[in-house]
Design goal:
Blueprint (H helix, E strand, L loop, with lengths): L11 H6 L30 H24 L4 H12 L22 E8 L2 E9 L11 H4 L2 H8 L3 H11 L3 H5 L8 H11 L16 H20 L10 E2 L11 E2 L4 E6 L5 E3 H5 L6 H15 L7 H4 L5 E7 L7 E7 L2 E8 L7 E7 L1 H11 L13 E7 L4 E2 L6 E2 L1
Antiparallel strand pairs: 1-2, 3-4, 5-6, 7-10, 7-13, 8-9, 8-11, 11-12
Protein name: Tyrosinase
GO molecular function: metal ion binding; oxidoreductase activity
InterPro entries: Di-copper_centre_dom_sf, Tyrosinase/Hemocyanin, Tyrosinase_Cu-bd
Length: 407
């Protein structure tokens, strides 16, 4: 894919560029309508999950096609075997809640691959990673993936993801960053901030070019599919609202489930909509039968909440942030008695609106209560020990703006 001519709409360059830069029309989907953010991707609004589904599927379709093209060049003795394997290939997803670490396959400098050799296959081909044609700022290779893994392992991804499934009452609360729940988009934002090398993964303009991007969003889409099976009546949003600026949509455009998901076309040259991509009939049937059991098994009582948490109250930090009053990207961290209990990632997009949400602070509250207030202590008794810190990408700490509210 990366070797294709960048003028080809299906090249890696143009496919990755759909998300943000270079801000060009893709696949004759219509002239520019936005005036602020000019990527195609919506952030911080109900279209976030629906829009990314056809994007991941576009990538998957091209991945399978390239794999099939390669398999067709293999020796006849093994060709059918590799063609069948190529056609069964699907976009890989990064299950960051199962293992708080960057995928091992994205780390090695050299990858050994099977290549055609004579009448068979030889396992001696090597793929150089990173490309010798590229130039990197000194020091990045030494810090990655160690800094990313450290960030990810210091975050309770499992518990917060389970909370999103358990406590969300509707699609908007499950999916977004403008409700008081632990939204899937918020957890997705953590991944962009924690796993970045050089912070480009934080930037919507460029994040689509990072190989981790599609792995992250394939997993996010997988989790949305679980939600759809578990709560079919709340599979997607049903309300209308005024959307943010994007390449194909002006600021303040009325958005409904029938609004086009530019620039993705479905059948009969019709633009995909939230309704068209929300239909998961025909997908893996085992998901429908086991979605609830799977979430409970991997994220519930057997795994993601401690025994103490299961028999006592759960504690969350709830926040409201006016995006116009906070430099973006940045993190807003909550400290309890001097110990960081968690944070939220404020992404560059959208630039306006109130960002809401919450994250688990159960163990930190329990430990602080036990240490300072005794068995009969209340949350109010440790309120004076709570502090907030806003930090830029450069690690500069910002003055707290009055628009921030945490409880």
């Amino acid at each position: 894919m990366q070797d294709m001519d960048s003028d080809d709409k299906l090249s890696y360059f143009q496919t990755a560029g759909i998300h943000g830069m270079p801000y060009i029309q893709w696949d004759n989907a219509g002239l520019r309508q936005g005036s602020q953010w000019l990527g195609y991707c919506p952030h911080g609004e109900p279209l976030f999950l629906p829009w990314h589904r056809p994007y991941v599927l576009l990538f998957e379709e091209q991945l399978v096609q390239h794999a099939t093209d390669i398999a067709e060049t293999y020796p006849e003795s093994v060709r059918d075997q590799y063609i069948d394997a190529a056609k069964s290939l699907r976009a890989p997803y990064w299950d960051w809640a199962a293992d708080n670490a960057v995928p091992p396959a994205s780390v090695p400098d050299m990858l050994t691959i099977n290549v055609a050799s004579g009448d068979g296959i030889q396992s001696s081909g090597a793929l150089n990673q990173p490309s010798p044609k590229l130039r990197y700022t000194p020091g990045f290779s030494e810090r990655s993936p160690y800094s990313a893994n450290n960030n990810l392992r210091n975050r309770n991804l499992k518990g917060n993801l389970y909370a999103a499934f358990v406590y969300a009452r509707d699609f908007n609360q499950f999916a977004m960053t403008d409700n008081n729940g632990v939204g899937l988009e918020q957890i997705h934002n953590w991944i962009h901030g924690d796993a970045s090398c050089g912070q480009q993964f934080w930037q919507p303009d460029l994040s689509g070019f990072d190989p981790l991007f599609m792995r992250n969003h394939a997993n996010v889409d997988r989790l949305w599919a679980y939600w759809q099976y578990i709560k079919p009546a709340q599979a997607t949003f049903t309300n209308s609202y005024y959307g943010q600026s994007r390449f194909g949509s002006a600021q303040g455009t009325l958005i409904t489930p029938d609004s086009p998901l530019q620039p993705f076309f479905g059948t009969q040259s019709r633009m995909h909509t939230t309704r068209s991509v929300a239909n998961i009939n025909g997908w893996a049937t085992h998901l429908q039968k086991s979605a609830t059991a799977l979430i409970n098994e991997k994220c519930g009582n057997q795994g993601w909440f401690s025994k103490r948490a299961r028999v006592s109250s759960q504690y969350f930090a709830r926040f409201e942030i006016d995006r116009t009053h906070v430099e973006r990207p940045s993190t807003v961290a909550v400290f309890i008695d001097g110990t960081k209990a968690g944070d939220v990632t404020v992404m560059p997009q959208p630039p306006v609106g109130i960002m809401k949400g919450s994250f688990m602070i159960d163990s930190f509250v329990q430990d602080t209560l036990a240490r300072t207030a005794g068995p009969n202590g209340t949350v109010a008794s440790i309120a004076h020990l709570v502090s907030i810190e806003i930090t830029k990408v450069s690690r500069m700490i910002l003055v707290i703006d009055p628009s921030l509210a945490v409880n």
